[in-house]
Amino acid sequence: MLRTDTPVTVYRKDYTPPAFAIDHVDLVLELDPQRTVVTSTLTFQRAPGATGDAPLVMVGEALELLGVTLDGQPFASAKEDAGTLTLTGLPAQGTLAITTACNPAANTTLSGLYVSNGNFFTQCEAEGFRRITYFLDRPDVMATYRVTLRADRAASPVLLSNGNLLSERALPDGRHEAVWEDPFRKPSYLFALVAGKLACVEERITSASGKEKLLQVWVEPQDLDKTRHAMDSLIHAIRWDERRFGLELDLDRFMIVAVSDFNMGAMENKGLNIFNTKYVLANAQTATDVDFANIESVVGHEYFHNWTGNRVTCRDWFQLSLKEGLTVFRDQEFSADMMGSESGRAVKRIEDVRVLRQVQFPEDAGPMAHPVRPDSYEEINNFYTVTVYEKGAEVVRMYQTLLGRDGFRKGMDLYFQRHDGQAVACDDFRAAMADANGRDLTQFGLWYSQAGTPVVSVKTAWDGAAGTLALTLTQRCPKVGIETRAGTPEKQPFHIPFAVGLIGADGADLPLHLEGERAGDATQRGTTRVLDFTQAEQTFRFTGLPRGDKAPLPSLLRDFSAPVIVDYEYSDAELTFLLAHDSDAFNRWEAGQRLATRALLKLVGEVQAGRELKLDPALVAAFRAVLTDGSLSPAFREQALMLPAEAYLAERMGVADPAAIHRARLSMREGLASALQREWLAAYEANATPGPYSPDADAMARRALRNLALGYLADSGDAAMQALADTHYQQADNMTDRAAALSALVNSFAPGREHALADFYQRFEQDALVIDKWFSLQGMQRGDVGPHAGKRTIDTVRALMAHPAFNLRNPNRARSLIFSFCSGNPAQFHAEDGSGYEFWADQVLALDAINPQVAARLARVMDRWQKYALPLRDRMRAALERVAASQTLSRDVREIVGKSLAA
Ligand code: B3K
Ligand code: ZN
């Protein structure tokens, strides 16, 4: 397909309300894979503020226009031009009927109406509805919908859409019809339909206020045995939202449908959530513990959107974080509560922060850096980012940190009281939080408008005679990305909730009293204080501390109270002390990560200097202490013993050197494996989970620690340990253990490697999601350093592209091999010969011709090209230029490579 769209930048400041309101949409779809005919009958009204002659300009994409009528009469003054349909001379109100045709089977973009495994699905967010019919396809146009679906009864026995089923009937010629009605006004991006051969499990529950609800999970019939966990997750999510936020399911029926061709995780269409199979299907044999946890979190996320996104939606796409940041925060809190313990909560927090730092911090420092509420875009689908989602969630979390749980709840209640049924902006959410709590949150608004990760530097001054510790905080946040263009205003200090505690020589928290604080103030109890850090530099004085020479040790940014980088020079001894004693579990983990990062970066230097690599005995001792401390939960130990990722280490270097990072990290893993072999083995033995598989938090944590131990043990290179991995593989009765053992065998180049890979494929040949794991594991495998030294992963990857089970059109499959290699295997991807970059360019171009959204995601892999050492940097630029030179690039990919090269 030749694309001719010229890049157009859309600006937030250009927002204007629509000239027409559409109150009701009646859709009739004659479903046919090659030619679906859609008649959309719209009840419209000229908006009160709009001028009398303003035309109605609707958008459409890949549509064939068949006819337009106004109030039942053919309407002649409708002009179709390059994706718009302009209707002039319309009355103040009336009924328009537009008939169009589209080709779902030919739609490989998976946006709009498409076919997957012979079934019909839709994806309308952000701008897919325009691929179904001409419409005012923008989120501030909200209407009620009535949908009539007609299809061949044998090919599509099940017909679903949003809301309630009104009627079903048979039609002549083997066709049938279903009529659905959604009583809630919604924007077009929340429209959905599903038609095909599907089966469901269902359950009835009674909501908190006593109404009966029907819950259904729809899948292909052979997958019915993998729906239990999704259904349980949905019920847990419904109960949690009732308890925590007093929010109930508003429809009589709520459906989840799984589809195997899907661009992202899932979609919150009103009453008809459509999910990637990856986030629905699970049983012990096919899904890992991580899959189970992800399903719970995504099912929760989409369900929570029913209030935060659907009942209150976004005025325009710049406000995306209004629904996404808030809903991610809600799903994070849900998953944390489901962990069932304080230590479980902390582990969830650690996992979330790890993603933020590993993925969002680099985004915020690179060419695509943008504020949580962006000011401009070329293609909105490129802005479903970790900044909008995960940093957006941190911004929401900061309200809760500043206002307390009760204050946050008051703000949420006011938000729904004011805006239920409306399309609003991030500022409206902030105003609700401020007004409900009588707080001025003006400065807090900068979190929405300024990009970049602030760096907070900390200095302490101890007055031992007075027992006073002065903490001086300074913040800076240089311009990033688009902010560096001429004419952008200087950045202002952020309002940072900075949580601190002070630890005494015995390792216990000290009682805190801040100078200027009223004694007995209820908010000032406890041993953690949230400082309101609002200026470029600010000093906070803690008084009444035990006098003496030795200053208390500060525990900074407890529970990661703000998305910032803390710059404070702890000594190794202080970090070891914090790792052993901090009452804040997050900072305990953080201390261990700082120690490991410091040691790793030192080793990277040794690799670069060609010196022998030696492991610091103090680090080994610190790891031993954590590994053998039975008072720490297995979940926490697993987190603390995991080394910082290669991608994270690359970000910490001025000039990234992936080969040296890999060498250093591997050597540390091997060193820890050998030095602590006895302890790893003991942990392996102690954390078995006998009995039938259960995805409960405790069993998951034990398996995680046990499999981490197994991975280290296999890396020791000891034949007995590799045999242990082999046995672990053979005896596994669940996918968590089987996949962990396979990964250990593959990456340690153990003798059992090839046999296990073949066995795994053969066992699961019929299960697409498991075969994705098989591809993914090989895309991420290390290069061989053993007998076949020099064997490059790229050769395996290129060979696997020709495997009969590989399919570029299926996003899960493309991601499993291509993305795993390009973003999950830095050392091999950044091979000095540039072979990884060549491969990347080939695949971006090939994917772009099929599915621009998936191609643009892959294009982002090169974001940080300027950070790499020569000759990598030059080779990365050359690959980017090759892609940029293509004459047929989508707007999606063009924005990404354009911004990369301009940076
Ligand atoms: N709202 C959807 C994402 C749509 C992405 C469009 N490119 C899923 C979610 O965040 O819940
Ligand atoms: Zn979402």
From TrEMBL:
SUPFAM superfamilies from the UniProt entry: Leukotriene A4 hydrolase N-terminal domain, Metalloproteases ('zincins'), catalytic domain
Protease found in the keyword field: yes
Domain Peptidase M1 alanyl aminopeptidase Ig-like fold: 452-568
Keywords: Aminopeptidase, Hydrolase, Metal-binding, Metalloprotease, Protease, Zinc
The enzyme's E.C. designation: 3.4.11.2
One GO MF term attached to the UniProt entry: aminopeptidase activity
Peptidase M1 membrane alanine aminopeptidase domain boundaries: 230-444
Catalyzed chemical reaction(s): Release of an N-terminal amino acid, Xaa-|-Yaa- from a peptide, amide or arylamide. Xaa is preferably Ala, but may be most amino acids including Pro (slow action). When a terminal hydrophobic residue is followed by a prolyl residue, the two may be released as an intact Xaa-Pro dipeptide
Enzyme class: hydrolase
Positions of the Aminopeptidase N-like N-terminal domain: 97-190
Cofactor: Zn(2+)
Domain annotation Peptidase M1 alanyl aminopeptidase C-terminal: ranges: 572-902
Keyword Zinc part of the UniProt annotation: yes
Superkingdom of this protein's organism: Bacteria
CDD domains assigned to the protein according to its UniProt record, in alphabetical order: M1_APN
InterPro entries registered for this protein in UniProt: Aminopeptidase_N-like_N, Aminopeptidase_N-like_N_sf, PepN_Ig-like_sf, Peptidase_M1, Peptidase_M1_dom, Peptidase_M1_pepN, Peptidase_M1_pepN_C, Peptidase_M1_pepN_C_sf
NCBIfam families noted in UniProt: pepN_proteo (TIGR02414)
Family per similarity comment: Belongs to the peptidase M1 family.
PANTHER family named in the record: PUROMYCIN-SENSITIVE AMINOPEPTIDASE
Name of protein: Aminopeptidase N
Source species taxonomy: Bacteria, Pseudomonadati, Pseudomonadota, Betaproteobacteria, Burkholderiales
